[in-house]
């Protein structure tokens, strides 16, 4: 008769003791002693929430009722550029020229202009590219491909005017 003790890698399982007998070559008798269950008291942590930025995009032209259309979107704080969020939500960013001649977000055409109506503090500072292209433009104007929405920690609401150059 032979004994084998198998220590399981799982800390919650008891070792298995297997008894093999020469009298019963094909049979293996195995039993496991049950161990009392252990429980640990844990302090409950509040669920972690990912900071999010809510966005509203005001259309460049009023609808038939005279009101400007507003599209809504949301984004995880600090993860995406404004241009990407607009593309993800199929919101038109470019004017006639920009539709054909934009640089694809490379910061070399200056056509992805938006106006930040609300929530400027939830965005990154103007980049050098913006300082170059928007030198003589209103301070609230941004290039969507240079604008990071959120900083991974903040949350709140950003309101964006699309195609502000069309508004007179
Ligand atoms: S897409 Fe060309 S500068 Fe933003």
From TrEMBL:
InterPro entries: 2Fe-2S_ferredoxin-like_sf, 2Fe-2S_ferredoxin-type, Adrenodoxin-like, Beta-grasp_dom_sf. Pfam families: Fer2. Its cofactor is [2Fe-2S] cluster. One of its GO terms (cellular component) is mitochondrion. Residues 101-149 form the 2Fe-2S ferredoxin-type domain. GO terms for molecular function: 2 iron, 2 sulfur cluster binding; electron transfer activity; metal ion binding. GO terms for biological process: P450-containing electron transport chain. Belongs to the adrenodoxin/putidaredoxin family. This is 2Fe-2S ferredoxin-type domain-containing protein. It comes from Tagetes erecta (African marigold).
